[in-house]
Design a protein that fits this description.
The structure is a homotrimer of 315-residue chains. The first copy, chain A, is an alpha/beta fold and 315 residues long. The first copy, chain A, has twelve helices and nine strands.
Chain lengths: 315, 315, 315
């Protein structure tokens, strides 16, 4: 029952995946993020919590977007940020990754933000590092991307604080999503009574019902009376494998339009992790519409990352 | 008569092009730059004017040189600088650029420095952003590159403060120059009575006389008694289109040598926006000679960029 | 007898190579590094010695590892760091490098950290820059990489302070090593009485004995009773040229294993400049063993670079 994310006092030591985070820790992150959401509104958007600390952005897979969010979060906390784009091609074996980690540790790095194409890379690194170092998983394979999951939950809590009363629909490529499973877990942990997934069979994991969700293949049924519509990104390269005839076809059946959204509750919010494929998963009228909280998600993403970094640095 | 660069109080809101800047604003920028020119001489070359602000260097086109000048200017103002090199290949439509802008805005970016191969990109972004955000055009297509134009004017004013008495010659590829037209506009606005362009017909815009300049095709005539010789860069890829036989041929006719410079006033200054093609537009003896102010231009470029950023942040 | 690394008062002006550094300066760097070794242990790992200074990391050759160490060192000294990756392909002639340098100087850069594939590049730049600017050689061709040499000497002094009593063995590709010759020079200058090199003839410079070292081709003889085993990295591309049958073969003869290390003194330390080729130059059991000081070398590397930068900034 050893949890690799917690230290002996049960405090957050690494952020590797939402699975395994006790409700207490989830709430600590969300509450801390609440206080940072205000920092961005201030004239001087900086707090000195990580002054003199060195945060290493270790990107074995390119992701300008994710890299930027962590860089901004770390700089607002006054940390020194070192970004390393390490092509996996120059990294023949796992052992070499650990040599890289050992070297950066010897340079007194305090925190690693790790992005890697392979599932489990951040776990492996967390297992390896010295006790005073923290690791944040910034996305590994299709496994986990916990800060994305947390910012989604934060956004839901912000707009729909009565979580015990919510109906949430997750729409699209659950199978390959880095976050969908984490999301389901977090929502359930925080007391959301009904989580639905809406997707073609080819984009759902085989045992998806075991996660405690209701499965729908039809948007008209699945969206009915929900409070939250969480769209997932459809990566073009998945289209073929999923036996989807075309993006147009997908949009027709699973794309979120104003008409389909009208089936949800009138005050339902619409979410998307970005970057959006407008006209594939979502219509521009909805993406830019009054029910969309897609840009607030981005804003809260900085607050959540600042919260995670400051909690890890404090423990 | 709505000027997209000014706010309702007539203050600078964005810097998109020199055209449309009232004389009052031009002088404000030049006077502010004057005060920053001193900062670089100090022991601690930093002022806290942009502390806690996030400046996004958004480069859709690579330009290490320009990126570096803005990065240095922003850091000397104590801003946090985030650099994004966004290849236009991954950006299929204009709409996606605006999604990128919206996302960075949601992360509470305060200022965008935009470089794009297409004319009008910075204007489009300025039109789109929220009211508290400022946009600086760091070069778009062959349209505008206002900070380069401003630093040139600043340099002229520094060395030849009696602008009402000046004769300025701009030499070379006016047709494709990002700055030549802005320059002409700024010099005229600030009261320079005589601006000449010297170039082969193939490197001049058709209606160049309408800008109020005197046109010369012969260096010996055009350089006669001028106070300022402003050389333009000749891009190799333009050579063919301009029906220029060769770089050697160009240098023979339009390259600035000590002999040709002797036709100008004895205290004339020589300028070049860099990077220089030594032996094509300009002889090394002139580039490195006593009349050259090419390196001071670079120095003043930092002061001018600091001035623009601090004015925008204040308005 | 003019030393390009010292100013008129005999103080360090540039760090280009260990050769030519008087014993006095070597000791000044090592003693200053001693004081910085403590900074990294502090809660806030930052000192304001280079606040407001601009350090330009000018990398004409890619080296993430070296770039990172200088970036961390400069940021811990509170400098503004500008990194320029300049591909040598876009740099046709030496003159253009100097134009780049002149431009960055005009932007009031205070220090250049230069990495270049050609021997002598940093020297050329140091010769060219204005008097108030300092240049640090971060590796040029197979010529010199002085901070690596200094951190090795610092590590030896830390673990074996009685340098007048030491026997040091340098093992491997001395011929192509950027550091081996500097090391030999520094150790001799600091009074180490016996330096050995152990390598196949094909990986030794022709006149290696003239450096005052003892030459061995057999590990069993060469490692006998040494206090320090300094392994060099074997670059794969050297294998063919050195007429080495294979990496396996090399490991068998010159790779450091626990058995071979047992021939050295029981308290001998093992060093490697990294990145290691485990199973080629060194067995993992030794690299990660109790006698290894390979990671402390990395730690001291930051302290040594901070020391060099702060000494240069002070002179």
């Amino acid at each position: 029952m050893l949890n690799p994310q917690l230290n002996d006092d049960g405090e957050l030591k690494h952020l590797l995946s939402i699975e395994g985070l006790p409700k207490r820790i989830l709430n600590q992150i969300l509450d801390t993020a609440e206080s940072f959401a205000g920092v961005a509104e201030r004239e001087v958007k900086k707090v000195p919590l990580l002054r003199g600390k060195t945060v290493c952005n270790l990107f074995f897979e390119n992701s300008t977007r994710t890299r930027t969010t962590f860089e901004i979060a770390a700089k607002r906390l006054s940390a020194d940020v070192i970004t390393l784009n390490v092509s996996t091609s120059s990294q023949s074996k796992g052992e070499t990754i650990l040599d890289t980690i050992d070297n950066l540790t010897a340079m007194h790095a305090d925190m690693f933000v790790v992005r890697h194409a392979q599932s489990g890379a951040a776990h492996m690194i967390a297992k390896h590092v010295a006790p005073h170092i923290s690791v944040i998983n910034a996305g590994d394979g299709s496994h986990a991307h916990p800060t994305q999951g947390l910012l989604d939950v934060f956004t839901i809590r912000k707009y729909k604080p009565e979580m015990h009363n919510l109906r949430v629909a997750i729409v699209g490529d659950v199978l390959h999503s880095r976050v969908a499973r984490s999301e389901i877990h977090a929502l359930t942990t925080l007391g959301v009574p009904e989580v639905r997934v809406i997707a073609p069979k080819t984009l759902l994991p085989q045992d998806v019902e075991k996660l405690g969700v209701h499965v729908y293949h039809d948007m008209n049924e699945g969206l009915k009376d929900v409070d939250v519509v969480m769209m997932l990104r459809l990566q073009n390269e998945r289209m073929a494998g999923a036996m989807l005839p075309s993006a147009q076809e997908y949009f027709k059946i699973y794309g979120l339009t104003s008409e389909k959204l009208a089936l949800a509750k009138p005050d339902a919010i619409v979410m998307h992790p970005g970057p959006m494929n407008r006209g594939v998963e979502i219509d521009s009228a909805v993406a830019d519409g009054t029910q969309s909280v897609i840009l607030p998600q981005v804003t809260y993403g900085i607050a959540v990352r600042m919260a995670v970094m400051s909690i890890l640095a404090g423990n």
